[in-house]
Design goal:
The protein is an alpha/beta fold. It has a single domain, classed as P-loop containing nucleotide triphosphate hydrolases (Rossmann fold). The protein has helices at residues 52-59, 85-92, 108-118, 123-136, 152-163, 182-197, 250-256; strands spanning 8-21, 24-37, 41-45, 67-72, 75-76, 93-97, 170-174, 202-206, 218-223, 226-233, 257-258. The strands form two sheets. The chain has a seven-stranded mixed beta sheet, with helices on both faces. Strand 4 and strand 5 form a beta hairpin. The protein starts with 7 loop residues before the first strand and ends with a strand. The model is unreliable at 239-243 and 245-259 (pLDDT under 50). The chain binds adenosine-5'-diphosphate (ADP) and magnesium ion. Magnesium ion binds at residues 52-53.
Amino acid sequence: MRQVHSKQVIRAKGLSKIYREGAAEFRALQSVDLDVHAGELTLMMGPSGSGKTTLLSILGCILRASDGRLEILGEDVGSLPEGELPRIRREAIGFVFQAFNLFPTLTAAENVALALDVRGIRGPVAQKRGEELLAEVGLAQKARSFPADLSGGQKQRVAIARALAGDPPILLADEPTAALDSTSGRTVIELLQRLAHEHGRAVVMVTHDPRVLLFGDRIVHLEDGRIVKEKRNVQTRRDETSSFGEAPMAAGLSNQFSI
Ligand code: ADP
Ligand code: MG
Protein backbone atom coordinates (compact mmCIF):
# COMPACT_ATOMS: atom_id res chain seq x y z
CA MET A 1 0.00 0.00 0.00
CA ARG A 2 1.43 3.33 -1.02
CA GLN A 3 1.93 5.76 1.79
CA VAL A 4 1.60 9.46 1.22
CA HIS A 5 4.82 11.40 1.73
CA SER A 6 4.99 14.96 0.59
CA LYS A 7 8.00 16.14 2.56
CA GLN A 8 10.62 18.03 0.65
CA VAL A 9 13.92 16.52 1.68
CA ILE A 10 16.04 18.42 -0.83
CA ARG A 11 15.43 22.03 -1.78
CA ALA A 12 17.75 23.53 -4.35
CA LYS A 13 17.46 27.10 -5.58
CA GLY A 14 19.61 28.75 -8.22
CA LEU A 15 22.35 26.11 -8.15
CA SER A 16 25.25 26.82 -10.48
CA LYS A 17 28.54 25.06 -10.97
CA ILE A 18 31.59 26.44 -12.70
CA TYR A 19 34.52 24.11 -13.28
CA ARG A 20 37.81 25.98 -13.50
CA GLU A 21 40.87 24.59 -15.20
CA GLY A 22 43.68 27.11 -15.26
CA ALA A 23 42.28 30.23 -16.86
CA ALA A 24 39.43 28.33 -18.53
CA GLU A 25 35.95 28.21 -17.02
CA PHE A 26 33.16 25.83 -17.85
CA ARG A 27 29.64 26.44 -16.64
CA ALA A 28 28.24 22.95 -16.01
CA LEU A 29 25.08 24.01 -14.16
CA GLN A 30 23.12 27.21 -14.56
CA SER A 31 20.62 28.30 -11.96
CA VAL A 32 18.93 24.98 -11.25
CA ASP A 33 15.85 24.96 -9.01
CA LEU A 34 14.76 21.53 -7.82
CA ASP A 35 12.77 20.18 -4.90
CA VAL A 36 12.93 16.47 -4.18
CA HIS A 37 10.17 14.78 -2.23
CA ALA A 38 10.16 11.81 0.12
CA GLY A 39 8.33 8.77 -1.21
CA GLU A 40 9.00 9.60 -4.85
CA LEU A 41 11.24 8.20 -7.54
CA THR A 42 12.60 11.18 -9.45
CA LEU A 43 14.30 10.41 -12.75
CA MET A 44 16.89 12.78 -14.13
CA MET A 45 17.48 12.55 -17.86
CA GLY A 46 19.46 14.45 -20.44
CA PRO A 47 22.22 14.08 -23.01
CA SER A 48 25.76 13.20 -22.05
CA GLY A 49 27.51 16.28 -20.67
CA SER A 50 24.25 18.02 -19.68
CA GLY A 51 25.28 18.17 -16.01
CA LYS A 52 23.40 15.21 -14.51
CA THR A 53 26.35 13.80 -12.54
CA THR A 54 27.38 17.29 -11.46
CA LEU A 55 23.88 18.00 -10.12
CA LEU A 56 23.63 14.61 -8.39
CA SER A 57 27.06 15.14 -6.80
CA ILE A 58 26.01 18.54 -5.47
CA LEU A 59 22.71 17.16 -4.12
CA GLY A 60 24.74 14.38 -2.47
CA CYS A 61 27.18 16.86 -0.88
CA ILE A 62 30.13 15.32 -2.72
CA LEU A 63 30.65 18.54 -4.63
CA ARG A 64 30.02 22.15 -3.64
CA ALA A 65 27.92 24.41 -5.85
CA SER A 66 29.57 27.60 -7.09
CA ASP A 67 26.39 29.51 -6.37
CA GLY A 68 22.86 28.98 -5.11
CA ARG A 69 21.23 27.50 -2.07
CA LEU A 70 20.90 23.85 -1.09
CA GLU A 71 18.93 22.52 1.85
CA ILE A 72 19.10 18.88 2.87
CA LEU A 73 16.50 17.89 5.47
CA GLY A 74 16.12 21.55 6.30
CA GLU A 75 19.85 22.14 6.80
CA ASP A 76 21.47 24.87 4.75
CA VAL A 77 24.41 22.96 3.28
CA GLY A 78 26.10 26.04 1.82
CA SER A 79 26.58 27.58 5.24
CA LEU A 80 28.16 24.45 6.74
CA PRO A 81 31.93 24.11 6.99
CA GLU A 82 33.56 21.50 4.76
CA GLY A 83 34.12 19.25 7.78
CA GLU A 84 30.37 18.87 8.35
CA LEU A 85 29.63 17.47 4.89
CA PRO A 86 30.71 13.88 5.67
CA ARG A 87 28.18 13.85 8.52
CA ILE A 88 25.35 14.90 6.17
CA ARG A 89 26.43 12.24 3.66
CA ARG A 90 26.62 9.57 6.35
CA GLU A 91 23.28 10.40 7.96
CA ALA A 92 21.13 11.51 5.07
CA ILE A 93 22.40 10.11 1.80
CA GLY A 94 23.04 6.78 0.12
CA PHE A 95 24.87 6.58 -3.21
CA VAL A 96 24.65 4.01 -6.00
CA PHE A 97 26.96 4.14 -9.02
CA GLN A 98 26.86 2.63 -12.49
CA ALA A 99 30.06 0.63 -11.87
CA PHE A 100 28.81 -0.84 -8.52
CA ASN A 101 32.14 0.03 -6.79
CA LEU A 102 32.18 -3.14 -4.66
CA PHE A 103 35.41 -4.39 -3.10
CA PRO A 104 36.27 -7.55 -5.09
CA THR A 105 38.06 -9.27 -2.19
CA LEU A 106 35.08 -8.90 0.17
CA THR A 107 31.89 -10.97 0.12
CA ALA A 108 28.49 -9.35 -0.38
CA ALA A 109 27.94 -9.39 3.40
CA GLU A 110 31.40 -7.93 4.05
CA ASN A 111 30.85 -5.14 1.52
CA VAL A 112 27.69 -4.17 3.37
CA ALA A 113 29.35 -4.63 6.78
CA LEU A 114 32.05 -2.15 5.81
CA ALA A 115 29.43 0.58 5.33
CA LEU A 116 27.96 -0.32 8.73
CA ASP A 117 31.43 -0.23 10.33
CA VAL A 118 31.91 3.35 9.09
CA ARG A 119 28.77 4.20 11.05
CA GLY A 120 30.02 2.52 14.23
CA ILE A 121 27.82 -0.57 13.84
CA ARG A 122 29.92 -3.68 14.49
CA GLY A 123 29.80 -7.24 15.82
CA PRO A 124 26.55 -9.21 16.04
CA VAL A 125 24.39 -6.11 15.51
CA ALA A 126 26.20 -5.42 12.23
CA GLN A 127 25.86 -9.06 11.22
CA LYS A 128 22.11 -8.99 11.78
CA ARG A 129 21.64 -5.63 10.08
CA GLY A 130 23.77 -6.77 7.13
CA GLU A 131 21.60 -9.85 6.71
CA GLU A 132 18.45 -7.72 6.85
CA LEU A 133 19.80 -5.35 4.21
CA LEU A 134 20.72 -8.18 1.84
CA ALA A 135 17.30 -9.76 2.41
CA GLU A 136 15.74 -6.39 1.65
CA VAL A 137 17.29 -6.43 -1.83
CA GLY A 138 16.44 -10.12 -2.33
CA LEU A 139 19.96 -11.47 -1.89
CA ALA A 140 19.90 -13.24 1.47
CA GLN A 141 21.28 -16.40 -0.15
CA LYS A 142 24.24 -14.57 -1.69
CA ALA A 143 25.70 -13.13 1.51
CA ARG A 144 28.87 -15.22 1.22
CA SER A 145 29.37 -14.73 -2.52
CA PHE A 146 32.14 -12.56 -3.89
CA PRO A 147 31.28 -9.89 -6.47
CA ALA A 148 32.92 -11.93 -9.25
CA ASP A 149 30.37 -14.70 -8.62
CA LEU A 150 27.36 -12.39 -8.87
CA SER A 151 25.52 -11.16 -11.97
CA GLY A 152 25.53 -7.45 -12.78
CA GLY A 153 22.05 -7.02 -11.36
CA GLN A 154 23.00 -8.84 -8.16
CA LYS A 155 26.11 -6.68 -7.76
CA GLN A 156 24.00 -3.57 -8.14
CA ARG A 157 21.58 -4.86 -5.53
CA VAL A 158 24.49 -5.44 -3.11
CA ALA A 159 25.56 -1.86 -3.83
CA ILE A 160 22.02 -0.70 -3.02
CA ALA A 161 22.05 -2.70 0.25
CA ARG A 162 25.34 -1.00 1.10
CA ALA A 163 23.88 2.42 0.26
CA LEU A 164 21.05 1.70 2.71
CA ALA A 165 23.44 0.94 5.60
CA GLY A 166 22.84 4.29 7.28
CA ASP A 167 19.07 4.06 6.66
CA PRO A 168 19.28 7.26 4.62
CA PRO A 169 16.12 9.19 3.75
CA ILE A 170 17.74 10.09 0.41
CA LEU A 171 19.07 7.65 -2.16
CA LEU A 172 20.96 8.95 -5.21
CA ALA A 173 21.77 6.65 -8.11
CA ASP A 174 23.88 7.61 -11.13
CA GLU A 175 22.90 5.47 -14.14
CA PRO A 176 22.49 2.32 -12.01
CA THR A 177 20.96 0.27 -14.82
CA ALA A 178 23.27 1.41 -17.63
CA ALA A 179 25.53 -1.64 -17.43
CA LEU A 180 22.70 -4.14 -16.97
CA ASP A 181 20.65 -6.32 -19.30
CA SER A 182 16.93 -5.64 -19.38
CA THR A 183 15.92 -8.28 -16.79
CA SER A 184 18.51 -7.12 -14.24
CA GLY A 185 17.74 -3.52 -15.03
CA ARG A 186 14.11 -4.08 -14.34
CA THR A 187 14.83 -5.73 -10.98
CA VAL A 188 16.97 -2.77 -9.97
CA ILE A 189 14.46 -0.11 -11.05
CA GLU A 190 11.63 -1.95 -9.31
CA LEU A 191 13.73 -2.11 -6.16
CA LEU A 192 14.45 1.62 -6.32
CA GLN A 193 10.77 2.33 -6.91
CA ARG A 194 9.80 0.19 -3.90
CA LEU A 195 12.37 1.95 -1.69
CA ALA A 196 10.64 5.21 -2.59
CA HIS A 197 7.00 4.12 -2.50
CA GLU A 198 7.00 1.70 0.42
CA HIS A 199 9.86 3.01 2.54
CA GLY A 200 9.22 6.69 1.95
CA ARG A 201 12.70 7.43 0.72
CA ALA A 202 13.45 10.15 -1.76
CA VAL A 203 15.12 8.37 -4.66
CA VAL A 204 16.81 10.32 -7.45
CA MET A 205 18.04 8.28 -10.38
CA VAL A 206 20.04 9.61 -13.29
CA THR A 207 19.35 7.61 -16.41
CA HIS A 208 19.76 7.51 -20.16
CA ASP A 209 17.55 4.51 -20.34
CA PRO A 210 14.10 5.03 -21.95
CA ARG A 211 13.01 1.64 -20.57
CA VAL A 212 12.81 3.04 -17.05
CA LEU A 213 10.75 6.12 -17.90
CA LEU A 214 7.41 4.75 -16.80
CA PHE A 215 8.70 3.75 -13.39
CA GLY A 216 9.43 7.31 -12.29
CA ASP A 217 6.95 9.52 -10.49
CA ARG A 218 8.63 12.53 -11.93
CA ILE A 219 11.00 13.11 -14.80
CA VAL A 220 13.37 16.06 -14.88
CA HIS A 221 15.20 16.83 -18.14
CA LEU A 222 18.52 18.59 -18.17
CA GLU A 223 20.17 20.24 -21.17
CA ASP A 224 23.31 22.36 -21.11
CA GLY A 225 23.23 22.59 -17.33
CA ARG A 226 19.61 23.74 -17.15
CA ILE A 227 16.35 22.03 -16.29
CA VAL A 228 14.45 22.38 -19.54
CA LYS A 229 11.43 20.20 -18.84
CA GLU A 230 9.77 18.56 -15.90
CA LYS A 231 6.92 16.11 -16.02
CA ARG A 232 4.95 14.19 -13.47
CA ASN A 233 3.90 10.67 -14.27
CA VAL A 234 0.29 10.27 -13.21
CA GLN A 235 0.38 6.51 -13.17
CA THR A 236 3.70 4.86 -12.48
CA ARG A 237 4.28 1.43 -13.87
CA ARG A 238 3.47 -1.47 -11.57
CA ASP A 239 2.10 -3.99 -14.01
CA GLU A 240 4.04 -7.20 -13.32
CA THR A 241 3.28 -8.60 -16.76
CA SER A 242 4.48 -5.64 -18.79
CA SER A 243 7.82 -5.89 -20.49
CA PHE A 244 10.70 -3.77 -19.33
CA GLY A 245 12.67 -4.62 -22.46
CA GLU A 246 10.46 -2.67 -24.84
CA ALA A 247 11.10 1.04 -25.08
CA PRO A 248 7.84 2.88 -24.51
CA MET A 249 6.23 4.29 -27.62
CA ALA A 250 6.17 8.05 -27.82
CA ALA A 251 2.40 8.22 -28.25
CA GLY A 252 1.71 5.96 -25.27
CA LEU A 253 4.15 7.93 -23.21
CA SER A 254 2.59 11.33 -23.76
CA ASN A 255 -0.75 9.97 -22.56
CA GLN A 256 0.83 8.92 -19.27
CA PHE A 257 2.10 12.30 -18.27
CA SER A 258 0.69 15.48 -16.98
CA ILE A 259 2.69 18.62 -16.39
P1 ADP B 1 26.51 14.20 -17.43
O1 ADP B 1 26.54 13.39 -16.17
O2 ADP B 1 25.16 14.74 -17.77
O3 ADP B 1 27.11 13.46 -18.59
P2 ADP B 1 28.53 15.86 -16.13
O4 ADP B 1 27.87 16.48 -14.96
O5 ADP B 1 29.43 14.72 -15.88
O6 ADP B 1 27.41 15.52 -17.22
O7 ADP B 1 29.37 16.97 -16.88
C1 ADP B 1 28.80 18.20 -17.31
C2 ADP B 1 29.86 19.00 -18.03
O8 ADP B 1 30.86 19.41 -17.10
C3 ADP B 1 30.58 18.21 -19.12
O9 ADP B 1 30.81 19.07 -20.20
C4 ADP B 1 31.87 17.80 -18.46
O10 ADP B 1 32.90 17.68 -19.41
C5 ADP B 1 32.13 18.94 -17.49
N1 ADP B 1 32.84 18.47 -16.29
C6 ADP B 1 32.42 17.51 -15.44
N2 ADP B 1 33.30 17.35 -14.42
C7 ADP B 1 34.32 18.23 -14.64
C8 ADP B 1 35.52 18.56 -13.95
N3 ADP B 1 35.85 17.95 -12.80
N4 ADP B 1 36.31 19.52 -14.47
C9 ADP B 1 35.97 20.16 -15.61
N5 ADP B 1 34.84 19.91 -16.31
C10 ADP B 1 34.02 18.96 -15.84
MG1 MG C 1 27.12 11.43 -15.80
